[in-house]
């Protein structure tokens, strides 16, 4: 079970889940398990048989095509109240997902969207911190001090407590993106060889947005998949 405030799951909202299966299956070696009985039209991505992500059909074409990171919480309703009290807002109220757990979407005071996951039958990642799996989430913010205050209030132990290893960093938007880019979270997946992975992204119909560049946590490249969802590749 993941501690409160630790990234524990990611999903992608895509126009075409089958196209997503082909792209990510080829890029990361993922296999897929149907989850239609639990949460609409979605599949779980597996790496060596362990769950690493979900691909879900974007029900509303007006919604963005995005990867979302979910932070673990023992009580999604209580965390939602703290988010509102700290100046954030709820995008989607805590909602049971079959017997798997309770999910919510929220936005921080700069409108960067993130998820909450209160585990039930599904604790989150079965494997992480390796090529083809989640390794990091970076928040690109306008005001990193304000972000540290907001998330420090929300997830203090995970970010700043003894032995904290949150897999969650904060950086100014303009460090990597044009200044007009809105604040957002960027999900990072591990890559054994970042340059080789970039070649695969391009071959599969994706594109490179930025990098590779050196960050404090490794070599990073920002890409989009063949449907426009942005994510990062991280070589350590």
Automatic annotation (TrEMBL):
<dbReference type="InterPro" id="IPR004360">
    <property type="entry name" value="Glyas_Fos-R_dOase_dom"/>
</dbReference>
<feature type="domain" description="VOC">
    <location>
        <begin position="6"/>
        <end position="119"/>
    </location>
</feature>
<dbReference type="InterPro" id="IPR029068">
    <property type="entry name" value="Glyas_Bleomycin-R_OHBP_Dase"/>
</dbReference>
<dbReference type="Pfam" id="PF00903">
    <property type="entry name" value="Glyoxalase"/>
</dbReference>
<dbReference type="GO" id="GO:0016787">
    <property type="term" value="F:hydrolase activity"/>
</dbReference>
<dbReference type="InterPro" id="IPR052164">
    <property type="entry name" value="Anthracycline_SecMetBiosynth"/>
</dbReference>
<protein>
    <submittedName>
        <fullName>Hydrolase</fullName>
    </submittedName>
</protein>
<keyword id="KW-0378">Hydrolase</keyword>
<dbReference type="InterPro" id="IPR037523">
    <property type="entry name" value="VOC_core"/>
</dbReference>
């Amino acid at each position: 079970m993941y501690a409160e405030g630790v990234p524990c799951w990611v999903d992608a909202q895509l126009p075409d889940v089958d196209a997503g299966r082909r792209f990510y299956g080829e890029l990361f070696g993922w296999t897929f398990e149907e989850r239609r009985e639990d949460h609409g039209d979605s599949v779980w991505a597996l790496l060596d048989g362990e769950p690493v992500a979900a691909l879900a059909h974007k029900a509303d074409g007006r919604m963005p095509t995005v990867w979302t990171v979910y932070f673990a919480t023992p009580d999604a309703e209580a965390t939602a109240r703290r988010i509102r009290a700290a100046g954030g807002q709820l995008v989607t109220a805590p909602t049971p997902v079959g017997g798997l757990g309770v999910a919510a979407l929220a936005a921080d005071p700069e409108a960067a969207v993130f998820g909450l996951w209160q585990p039930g039958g599904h604790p989150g990642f079965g494997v992480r911190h390796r090529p083809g799996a989640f390794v990091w989430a970076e928040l690109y913010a306008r005001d990193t001090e304000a972000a540290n205050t907001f998330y420090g209030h929300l997830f203090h132990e995970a970010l700043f407590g003894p032995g904290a290893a949150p897999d969650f960093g904060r950086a100014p938007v303009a460090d990597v993106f044009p200044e007009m880019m809105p604040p957002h979270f960027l999900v990072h997946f591990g890559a054994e060889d970042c340059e080789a992975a970039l070649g695969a992204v391009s071959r599969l119909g994706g594109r490179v947005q930025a990098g590779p560049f050196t960050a404090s946590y490794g070599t990073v490249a920002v890409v989009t998949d063949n449907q426009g969802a942005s994510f990062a590749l991280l070589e350590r």
